[in-house]
Design goal:
The protein is an alpha/beta fold. It has 10 helices and 7 strands. Helix content is 44%, strand content 15%. Strand 6, helix 10 and strand 7 form a beta-alpha-beta unit. Helix 5 crosses helix 7. The longest helix has 17 residues.
Length: 239
């Protein structure tokens, strides 16, 4: 009887929520898969980002060294016009409420960070979003990624070290100069206790995607001004 109920439950799930790969859009529910969201073929062809050194050098092309407060940078996969379906994964996580994507790929990101050899952090934190935006969306997508990264690295997760004090429009259509201006004076320490916790600590900031680095570098600047020893960044996507 129990097996029959399991069969019925599985069958109904396949009817109303069939497993469609978010990358190639093909059905893969009849196979044993590594992922809940992408088929094994796409999983095996994840367009992994280049090394952290290359990503860091890319940041230096957008941000002057004297203005860069980030020590290391790592991303899981590359998104561009040639593999835009991987950007769709970010959109599903960010706007469609499929937060398990952040959890699942956050684990992969954590493993990549550990493999790259910079994984000893006092705190792993998400890039904060404004409370108004969090109410609109219902969640902060970066929190799900950061929690998984912290779990894999066996580090403390803390979402109450930084806050976003100003509501800003999306950075998507802005150039590098406009992004930098748009993000000025947006972040601040969460409270006095946060300053005490951050002082002298090594921090990893986690976000969904890294483009010019303006947003995450501003977070790093605030943390350094709070007394952090170092700030590294990690994201799912790199554009």
């Amino acid at each position: 009887m129990i097996n029959f109920l399991k069969f019925i439950t599985k069958s109904l799930k396949e009817v109303f929520a069939p497993k469609i790969c978010v990358v190639c859009e093909k059905y893969f529910g009849d196979t044993v898969s590594y992922s809940e969201f992408i088929c094994n073929k796409c999983y095996d062809s994840i367009p992994y980002c280049p090394s952290k050194d290359i990503i860091y050098n890319n940041l230096l092309m957008a941000i002057k060294l004297d203005d860069l407060f980030i020590s290391n940078a790592s991303s899981l996969f590359q998104v561009d016009i040639h593999n835009h379906r991987w950007l769709e994964i970010i959109h599903l996580l960010k706007y469609k409420g499929i937060t398990k994507i952040g959890t699942e790929f956050g684990e992969l990101l954590g493993k990549r960070i550990a493999k790259e050899g910079f994984a000893d952090y006092d705190y792993v934190i998400p890039v904060p979003i404004h409370q108004s935006k969090k109410r609109e969306r219902g969640y902060n997508q970066s929190e799900f990624i950061a929690k998984s990264v912290a779990k894999i690295l066996n580090c403390n997760y803390n979402s109450q070290l930084l806050k976003r004090k100003k509501y800003t429009n999306s950075q998507t259509l802005l150039d590098t100069t406009e992004r930098k201006k748009n993000i000025q004076n947006v972040f601040a320490s969460y409270n006095d206790k946060a300053v005490e916790l951050v002082n002298g600590k090594d921090i990893l900031i986690v976000d969904d995607v890294l483009t010019t680095g303006s947003t995450i570098n501003e977070c790093a600047r605030i943390l350094i001004n709070m007394g952090a020893n170092s700030v590294d960044v990690a994201t799912l996507g790199h554009a």
